[in-house]
TrEMBL record, chain A:
Keywords: Cell membrane, Membrane, Transmembrane, Transmembrane helix, Transport. InterPro entries: MetI-like, MetI-like_sf. Belongs to the binding-protein-dependent transport system permease family. CysTW subfamily. This is Spermidine/putrescine transport system permease protein. The chain crosses the membrane at residues 12-35, 61-84, 96-120, 153-175, 196-221, 254-278. Residues 66-275 form the ABC transmembrane type-1 domain. Its main location: membrane. It is found in: Cell membrane. It comes from Rhizobium herbae.
Length: 292, 360
């Protein structure tokens, strides 16, 4: 008997990996979050305790850190969208060879390790770094601009730099798929370039924009190294707190509760952003292959 | 084939047995020959040149795994995420936690000939023993954690209050470590040095207030001593509660100073220990290694390069007066002004406060 093979079956290995690599650890976190810790014996004690969840909801530090991650992720995604969009659309107009060169140049920063990039930023933005030295040399400043390094500005500048390629690539692929005849038709019917952009190009690239927003939001909100090593005293993140609770404090229940809360809230916000973007007519047209 | 007296089954069985003995033989010899040991220690204790002689003598490669904090080391052992560590580095005052949790292998001091030359204060310390008197760790290196500063930017020698002084805003750094940072705030709040690691909720609240007020004055919290050295070298930081490494590394290039605050000097003593799960073969190499750490070669190397003293007097009399002063062994009474950081019973409260300070 011949085996009937459906395309959907190709997803089975990935589904298994997701279950093993994501759902099971999450289930473990749920269980750990209701356990207790015996700090005298340094052991996790199986229990059904709401202690860590009470701490989660009553200590404002956790809400503050999660809120900070959401704002940081959303701000970075928004800026990446504004800056990345023109770059992505410009790339569609390049000759094929230059598109290849452009994509390589775009991804070049990602080929270096994160820690290398972090120390490079310190050299560029430090008190005795390139930017301050240049500004001093031109007589623009007398004292170094301290806010350039170890501040929220630094954190978000570097988060934007690190994640911009993900936004540009997603929009670029979406823009490449636009049927150019639609733009020509709009122009033939009297639309100004700006109208053609807002009525044809932008709506049809919203799926790419949505993917970019989802990716950049998740990466920026979940980053730990950049805020920790470049954000100075403002570099506290929920990720660092989770690391501290799991490692140093041996408080696995609270760490689990914080991890789950962070996951749920980030997922809710990311889904909200993407849902809003995909409700635009253009996105619906792309998914329905032309039909609104 | 029947006439030969060996059946096909016997031939096959012989081949299988031969293959099996060869395989298990090579396995057992691989197990016996330890070619590599992983030593979890501080980046300042484990420079490759310090241990080159040991590797040459034994043919065993010592792979270094650098620690970020004592707490992280304990947690890694406790949670089993450090299963590749063969030798570890608990502090003298933190050893009790490892011993109590049953994480360490008992140490037979008779297997360590160089232990005879240890200073009495370290040889007889009860802090590495369990309740029944069994020993689980061996002190091998000690020193003090000073305030390191740029002499050209400070008119007088700083003390702990300098780290909280608005005048030096943007030039200061503290270690991202609850135990020492909260203790320093406690000293500034007026808690006596013999009580600072016993602070209760009210005193901790005072310390927290100071640390929250200190936060805008800091350039950053430093994570590793290499990170702090880099911050001094690039002019980001002029004064920090530190280890002595930035002073030693940069003193020839910058006007570096090292202050020992009168309010209390943070002393430290590192111990050698082996995880309870270590194999007998690796334990034997571990004994050779701790004997090396207490011997003349390691003491000479680390005194000359790192400016640290081992717990052994083995090379003390061969050092010049200046060399003795540099590593604080000219007058052993210096230890009388030491505070030995020790994780208190209410340490989880300390950690909670530190997290709140950083998130404030």
């Amino acid at each position: 008997m011949a085996l009937v093979f459906h395309r959907a079956q190709l997803a089975v290995p990935v589904a298994c990996m997701l279950i093993l690599g994501c759902v099971l650890p999450l289930a473990v976190l749920v269980v750990f979050s209701v356990f207790e810790v015996d700090l005298d014996a340094f052991t996790l004690v199986p229990a059904f305790s709401g202690q860590s969840w009470v701490q989660m909801f009553t200590n404002p530090v956790f809400a503050f850190l999660i809120g900070k991650a959401v704002v940081s992720g959303a701000g970075t995604a928004m800026l990446a969208g504004f800056i990345g969009y023109p770059i992505a659309v410009s790339m569609t107009r390049l000759p094929v060879l230059w598109k290849g060169v452009g994509s390589i140049v775009l991804l070049t920063p990602l080929y270096t390790g994160e820690i290398v990039r972090i120390y490079a930023w310190r050299v560029v933005l430090g008190s005795e770094g390139l930017v301050n030295a240049a500004l001093k040399w031109f007589g623009v400043i007398d004292e170094p601009l301290k806010f350039l390094l170890f501040s929220p500005f630094t954190t978000h500048l570097v988060l934007l730099y690190n994640n911009l390629p993900f936004m540009v690539l997603a929009i670029w692929i979406s823009a490449e798929l636009i049927d150019k005849r639609l733009i020509e038709a709009a122009r033939d019917l009297g639309a100004r370039p700006i109208d053609a952009f807002f009525k044809v190009i932008l709506p049809l690239t919203t799926p790419g924009l949505a993917v970019g927003v989802f990716t950049v939001f998740a990466l920026a909100a979940g980053d730990m190294m950049t805020p920790s090593l470049l954000g100075g005293t403002s570099g506290a993140t929920p990720m660092a707190m989770i690391d501290n609770l799991f490692g140093t404090a041996f408080d696995w229940p609270l760490a689990s509760a914080l991890s789950l809360s962070l996951l749920v809230i980030l997922f809710a916000f990311a889904t909200g952003f993407v849902t809003i973007l995909l409700r635009f007519d253009g996105a619906r047209a792309v998914f329905r292959r032309g039909a609104l | 084939m029947a006439g030969s007296g060996i059946s096909r089954r016997e031939v096959l069985a012989g081949i299988a047995a031969g293959a099996a003995s060869g395989m298990f033989g090579s396995l057992s010899s691989a197990k016996a020959a330890v070619s590599e040991m992983v030593w979890a220690t501080w980046d300042s204790n484990g420079h490759p040149e310090y241990i080159a002689a040991f590797e040459a003598q034994t043919g065993v490669k010592v792979k270094l795994s650098y620690l970020s904090s004592e707490d992280a080391q304990f947690a890694a052992l406790k949670t089993g995420t450090a299963s590749d560590w063969d030798m570890i580095n608990p502090s003298l005052n933190g050893s009790w936690r490892y011993i109590k949790a049953g994480l360490l292998e008992e140490i037979d001091m008779a297997k360590i000939p160089n232990a005879a030359k240890m200073y009495d204060v370290f040889k007889t310390t009860p802090k590495v023993l369990d309740a029944s008197g069994k020993q689980f760790a061996v002190p091998y290196l000690w020193g003090l954690n000073p305030i390191v500063y740029r002499k050209d930017k400070f008119e007088s020698e700083p003390d702990y209050t300098t780290l909280f002084n608005e005048k030096y805003k943007g030039q200061l750094a503290m270690r991202d470590y609850a135990l020492e940072s909260i203790a320093i705030a406690g000293l500034v709040a007026g808690v006596p040095r013999d009580k600072v690691f016993l602070m209760e909720t009210k005193e901790l609240a005072e310390a927290k207030k100071l640390l929250v007020a200190q936060k805008p004055l800091l350039r950053t919290y430093w994570q590793t001593i290499g990170d702090l050295t880099n911050l001094f070298a690039t002019g980001e930081v002029s004064c920090a509660f530190s280890w002595r490494v930035p002073y030693d590394t940069l003193k020839d290039k910058l006007a570096m100073g090292m202050a020992k605050p009168k309010a209390g000097i943070m002393g430290w003593c590192d111990c050698f220990a082996m995880p309870a799960t270590l194999s007998a073969e690796k334990s034997e190499i571990g004994y050779k290694f701790i004997d090396y750490l207490l011997g003349a070669e390691f003491a000479t190397q680390i005194a000359k390069i790192g400016n640290y003293a081992t717990t052994s007097s083995i090379i003390r009399d061969e050092l010049s007066k200046e060399q003795q002063e540099a590593i604080f062994v000219d007058d052993m009474d210096v230890m009388k002004s030491f505070m030995w950081p020790v994780a208190p019973e209410n340490y989880s409260e300390w950690l909670k406060i530190w997290n709140e300070v950083k998130a404030s």
